[in-house]
Amino acid sequence: MGIKLYYTTVTASRTVKSQQAEVMRILESKSIQYELIDISVGGELRDEMRSKAGNPSAVPPQLFNEDQYCGDYEMFSDAVEEDTMDQFLKMA
């Protein structure tokens, strides 16, 4: 599967929860299949996400196409508004 969504099931942040839910809702509404990777199951997954994103303080949600970094929630939201989702997800 190409699209990977790094997220967490354990967070006290309402912002992170709502951003993750919105990303999932939009991907599902556009029938885009994706793999969920829960970084709360181990620090190595969080470190992997941050390393791939090139940002040592990156927080979920973070999107990738295989191992290519697509962006974070803000970039995803911009792509939705600009109708450039395929380019953002590197599917075009």
UniProtKB/TrEMBL annotation:
Residue ranges of the TM segments: none
Signal peptide range: none
SUPFAM superfamilies tied to this protein: Thioredoxin-like
Compartment annotation: Cell projection, Ruffle membrane; Cytoplasm, Cytosol; Nucleus
Superkingdom as given in the UniProt entry: Eukaryota
Family in the record: Belongs to the SH3BGR family.
Role of this protein: Could act as a modulator of glutaredoxin biological activity. May play a role in cytoskeleton organization.
UniProt protein name: SH3 domain-binding glutamic acid-rich-like protein 3
Organism expressing this protein natively: Dissostichus eleginoides
